[in-house]
């Protein structure tokens, strides 16, 4: 039985993965705008 479903959201630019869609979106917006990573966002990335 598989009940637990882990959904991981990935930033399509830097490929960091996040547990929430909003974090992935934040990262994506940042990456697109600044073409670099924001440590305040990437610290939430899933390893
Ligand atoms: Zn990113």
Write a structural description.
By secondary structure, the protein is mainly alpha-helical. Helix content is 38%, strand content 9%. It has helices at 21-34, 39-42; strands at 9-10, 17-18. The protein has a two-stranded antiparallel sheet. The protein is elongated and about 45 Å long. The model has no long low-confidence stretch (mean pLDDT 92). The structure holds zinc ion. Zinc ion is lined by residues 11, 13-14, 16, 27-28, 31.
Distance from first to last alpha carbon: 26 Å
Provide the β-strand percentage band.
5-15%
Label the structural class: mainly alpha
Largest sheet: 2 strands, antiparallel
Number of strands: 2
**Rg from alpha-carbon coordinates:** 12 Å
Based on Cα principal axes, name the global outline.
elongated
Strand order of the largest sheet: 1-2
N to C succession of SSEs: EEHH
Count the DSSP helices: 2
Low-pLDDT runs = none
Number of domains: 1
- What fraction, in percent, of the residue positions are helical? 25-40%
Bound molecules: zinc ion
Mean pLDDT: 92
